[in-house]
Amino acid sequence: MVTVVASVDLPVDEKLTIKKNTIKGEGSQKRFCLLTGLHGDELEGQLVCHLVQQKINAAPQNFHGTLDIYPALNPLGIDSITRGIPAFDLDMNRTFPGETNGTMTEYIASKILEDASGADFALDIHASSIFIRELPQVRIPPKYKDRILPFARHLNMDLIWVHNSGSVQENSLVYTLNQNDTPAAVVDMGIAMNCAAALSEQLTQGIFCLLKEMGMWSGETTAPREPVCSDKDSDISVLVSKTAGFFVRKVECGGRVKKGDLLGEIITPLEGKVLVQIKAPCDGLLFTLREYPIVETGSMLGRILNEGN
To answer: What pLDDT, in 10s, does the model give residues 30-66?
Structure first.
């Protein structure tokens, strides 16, 4: 059943409308919220919403409880292919808990939070920016680690990162849901302005693993991957560019590297020179890697989860 969560009048007889689809099954009182589209250029979540509903529709007798699906929390951003809210230059994931009597964005944030609060679990699906590719991962605010880890382990992701990253900081949707006693986590995977079907399928399988663990799905599931877990900032080596240039990567995101391995080079097309070789500072899992090749001094090149010396 499709219902309206929030609606705001826009100029020229238009409306900004946030909708959700609710699927109900018998046999459980539990509720799962699937949210995505806070950033308009992150698209894997759109396909996940479709795949989850497709599987339930094929065997509705196996679904128990309530599933609320919010596929487009920032529909203006999705329509205009922009990360934030067009014309406002505003990151919607920094506006929670919002304010019922506030600006348009604050009002929408407050209605989304109000509607999703009280679920037994909420999952906010993101992709990375256009610059960086991310290995499929669950991100958890450190303050709520003990509450969320039992859910996160079933989501079939490659990594669980307990870290105060931007997507789970204060004023994010997930942080604020947890403040409201609603267990919630972020999935971050892939790259913006793209949709990798394999990643969406991987997460869909994980969602059904979690639904089964929660007693909300009685159909078949695959065994979830055993994720690597990081809960210390000291475990992470961040690679940044020391010069401007053109970054040529020599490895793929998600691989394990050895200390000293060549990860990429920063070159100058004008003179045909290699300015800097980027080498792994430690053994570990390369879970973030630069995709967009133009870099400035200080640009992010990658992250390695340290698994050695």
So the answer is: 999 999 999 999 999 999 999 999 999 999 999 999 9
- 278: enclosing H helix or E strand: strand 273-279
Q: How far apart are CA 177 and CA 188, in angstroms?
A: 17
- 245, 246, 252, 256: CA torsion to nearest 10: -20
φ, ψ of residue 101 to 5 degrees: the values are: -100, 20
Q: Quick one: which of 247, 245, 256, 244 has its CA closest to 280?
A: 256
Asked if residues 187 and 202 have their Cβ atoms less than 8 Å apart, the reply is no
Determine the length of the chain. 309
Q: Taking a C-beta distance cutoff of 8 angstroms, is the pair 18, 75 a contact?
A: yes
Give the count of alpha carbons within 13 A of 187, CB side only: 31
The Cα 91–Cα 256 span in angstroms is: 33
How many angstroms separate the Cα of 304 from the Cα of each of 18, 128, 252, 307?
37, 16, 12, 9
Secondary structure (3-state) at 49: helix
Angle, vertex CA 260, rays to CA 132 and CA 159, nearest 5? 45
Token pair for 140: 């958890």
Query: Could you tell me the two tokens for 77?
Result: 């951003």
The model's pLDDT over 68-111, given as tens digits with 9 standing for 90+, comes to: 999 999 999 999 889 988 877 789 999 999 999 988 899 999 99
